[in-house]
Amino acid sequence: MSLRLQGRTALVTGSTSNIGRAIAVAFAAQGARVVVSGRDEERGAAVVAQIRENGGRADFVRASLDGNAAASRELAAAATEVLGRVDVLVNNAGIYPPASTATTDEETFDRVYGVNVKAPFFLTQALVPAMIGTGGGVVINLGSWIARLAVGSPLYSSTKGAMETMTRAWAAEFGPQGVRVNAISPGVIASADWDDEIRRLSDRMMQGSPAGQSGNPDAIAAAAVYLASDESAFVHGTVIDVDGGRTGVAVVAGG
Ligand SMILES: NC(=O)c1ccc[n+]([C@@H]2O[C@H](COP(=O)([O-])OP(=O)(O)OC[C@H]3O[C@@H](n4cnc5c(N)ncnc54)[C@H](OP(=O)(O)O)[C@@H]3O)[C@@H](O)[C@H]2O)c1
């Protein structure tokens, strides 16, 4: 049986930990050649080593994506040099500073929008023309359940709402030229690196959902493989909820 991403190349931003790492590992396991990216070279090297030990192909490209357009263009150029071309871009890197409106200063506001919205915007701008030139490609954005079910993080949730909206707008803009754009909206996804206390808190945020507890990054990676592959050839501009039912279903205790 042929692998689902055989012959494809992919750049996964923020793949030095949790969801991005799982996506990079899953893409490589399905035959894609992957560029792992982030700021932390040590964690990046560990992900690359894991992929290579499993027989996959991966390289690390360090990038600090603070929203500066030049930084996004540099990553696009470096990834293209390593891979030859980029067939799949996953805009995964994101930050979540726990700030209320009252405690959000201007620097924090600009930083969160810079990493979560501006950086993927300019990365997509830099890579999509070449995808169109080579006959097509795929862009996958990361949204969040928090974009629709408010839990009191207005700054972060608005950036994720922006990514989900851009997903539809880019699908309209680029879809007719062969580049499919979709998004995944995760529920709470616990990292293997989290300690027990954060894990308990994250499980609490999933109470009342059908899953009843936080999810595993592999669940997001499985959706990303689907969206990156030809199995989703007829899927454009959609946001796939992989959230344990958090946004759509309320399980009432004893009900
Ligand atoms: N985990 C969840 O429960 C959850 C739920 C909904 C949506 N999401 C979304 O899913 C995505 C991944 O979340 P996660 O939980 O896997 O996050 P995470 O474990 O905190 O990882 C974030 C990744 O982004 C990279 N990153 C952060 N700032 C960066 C910067 N300035 N430049 C370049 N890379 C940067 C980090 O790499 P370095 O540290 O190496 O720079 C890291 O690899 C995010 O977009 C998040 O909003 C997560």
Question: Can you walk me through this structure?
Answer:
The chain has 255 residues and is an alpha/beta fold. The chain has a single domain, classed as NAD(P)-binding Rossmann-like Domain (Rossmann fold, 3-Layer(aba) Sandwich). It has 7 helices and 7 strands. Strands 3-2-1-4-5-6-7 form a 7-stranded parallel sheet, sandwiched between helices. Helix 2 links the parallel strand 2 (33-38) and strand 3 (57-62). Helix 1 (18-29) packs across helix 7 and helix 4 (106-133) runs parallel beside helix 5 (154-174). The longest helix is centred in the middle third of the chain and has 28 residues, at 106-133. The protein is globular. GO terms for molecular function: oxidoreductase activity.
List keywords for this structure.
single chain, 255 residues, alpha/beta, Rossmann fold, 7-stranded parallel sheet, globular, binds NADP nicotinamide-adenine-dinucleotide phosphate
